[in-house]
Amino acid sequence: MGGAMENMSLTTWDDDYVLDHVSAAEDSIVEEVNVHEMAHSYFGDSLVMRHFEHAWLKESWATYLSGEWIKDNRGEDKFQYILWKWSAEYFSECSSYVRPIVTRTYDNSWSLFDSHLYPGGAMRLHMLRRLLGDHIFWTAVSDYVTTFQENLVDTDQFKKTLEKHSGFNLTAFFEEWIYGKGYMKLKGEFSYWAENGEAKIELEQTQMDEKIGINVFRYLPIEVEMTEENGGRTIGLGVFDENGKTSVSFAGLKKMPSL
Fold first, then answer.
1. Spatial contact of 227 and 259, defined as CB atoms under 8 Å apart
2. According to the model, what pLDDT value does residue 259 have?
3. C-alpha distances in angstroms, 105 versus 48, 101, 145?
């Protein structure tokens, strides 16, 4: 056994996770992992992945729901820290190798249980939640769990349920972020013209690598927030072109803003 196992009412732990009374008091790892394993009652046990390439439908979900428990019990700041931590773990692994979240290319099934699957997949669920909004997202998830309970599931069934409730065509999102490799990397330039109170941010994606199959991400626009000294905030949206470039302009600024 690696990590922990979702035995109903009594989660079993690998001995690497044994804590003394001091570390147990300082870290919420016990509750987090227990919630993760409890989530498998739905995502993994009631809804069983059809093949190993769909393992994110169990492990990414269990990871994300442990984050939701943290948000409810530790607050928004702790949840934002967890999102940062997940991203850092995923990015770190991507410095060694990149793979799609859903892939049929692997040496053995155990090799799929990596940081792409756990934090990487959890972050993509969060992206879908932000894209669809809480009400639509959780309504669709409830339908997905109810419709497919005690059955085998695959990624397309999850996608179609989200599409049914949102009215969105999510094919491009799934092609880029679930079946595609890597994540968006950006470089930017900032320009400010004091005489007319205008500013422009130019962004360019830099992750593209034809050799290993990392492409431009175009489906999701990017939000850029401009904050003025008086506390005023303006949010602009940038849509990337086929070369991975976009720009966002702001007008009516009284002073040099911060980003």
1. yes
2. 59
3. 20, 11, 27
Q: Residues 7-29: what's their mean pLDDT?
A: 67
The string of pLDDT tens digits covering residues 160-190 is 999 999 999 999 999 999 999 999 999 999 9
Task: Please give the span between the terminal C-alpha atoms of the chain, in angstroms, as a whole number.
Answer: 46
pTM to 2 decimals? 0.89
- Which residue shows structure tokens 């470039």? 245
pLDDT: is 229 or 50 the higher one?
50
Q: Which of 188, 185, 159 shows the shortest CA–CA distance to 172?
A: 159
Rounded distance, CA 130 to CA 137, Å?
8
28 CB contacts (<8 Å, ≥6 apart)?
70, 74
C-alpha–C-alpha distance, residues 81 and 106, integer Å: 31
How much helix, strand and coil, in percent to the nearest 5, is found in the chain?
45, 20, 35
Which single residue is written with the structure tokens 């690497």? Answer: 16
Q: What is the largest CA-CA distance in the chain?
A: 67
